[in-house]
Design goal:
mainly beta, Jelly Rolls, 15-stranded mixed beta sheet, 15 strands, about 45% strand, globular, disordered N terminus
Length: about 220
């Protein structure tokens, strides 16, 4: 059960979150571990890269913004990461000195990552991860997060002191993060709209299998 918002646990969560974030910072940056190039592997409907129409086979590089129009979807890879962007979403993937950064301004994104520093950002939350899979839904009033498997720190922008560290094996700790003015600012939430079969597909693009699929 999440204890977000309870005074006696705030300091414990803060210390745990800060320690985990510091550990992430010691990892090698994405640019040192994986090639920067990638491609659009599958697309349906209207898909754009940097505002220009794109189709399967189009190149994707660090700093590009991939967007899917109404009724569209985009599956793309970049380095040792893979992404499924759903209709109405837009995401920018960039390699920074501190690691790879994923900015999801709006929409729904399922991602799998190789072992490196990655930060996922929405207008309401930051998620620091290493070698994991994450599903994000970014809406104006809330961000829904599912760390499908792996190690992550979820931090509400409105209350960084309530950061929560999770280690999950199979969709164990989904959270909804709210804008400022709501208490609790983060709470357990039943995230839907992503499936194990999609995670298997994304990992297969990188020659991997999810932990739940066995060896």
């Amino acid at each position: 059960m999440c204890t977000c918002g309870k005074p006696d646990s705030t300091r414990r969560r803060l210390l745990t979150g800060m320690a985990a974030l510091a550990a992430f910072g010691k990892l090698r940056p994405a640019s040192a571990m994986a090639p920067s190039g990638g491609s659009l592997r599958q697309s349906t409907g209207d898909v754009m890269i940097n505002g220009k129409p794109a189709a399967a086979g189009s190149a994707v590089v660090s700093g590009d913004t991939v967007a899917a129009g109404p009724g569209g979807t985009a599956v793309f890879t970049l380095g040792d990461d893979a992404f499924l962007l759903r209709a109405g979403g837009a995401v920018t993937v960039s390699d920074r000195p501190a690691g790879r950064e994923i900015n999801l301004e709006s929409g729904r994104l399922l991602s799998v990552f190789g072992p490196k520093t990655v930060t996922l950002k929405t207008p309401l939350a930051n998620v620091g991860i290493r070698g994991t899979a994450v599903y994000l839904e970014s809406h104006p009033a809330a961000t829904n997060i599912c760390v499908c498997y792996g190690h992550a720190v979820m931090s509400p922008n409105a209350a960084p002191g309530r950061a929560e560290e999770v280690r999950t094996r199979h969709h164990d700790a989904p959270r909804r993060v709210f804008a400022a003015g709501r208490d609790p600012v983060m709470e357990p939430y039943m995230v839907t709209d992503h499936a194990d079969e999609e995670l298997v597909m994304l990992e297969a693009l990188q020659g991997r299998v999810p932990p739940f699929a066995g060896k």
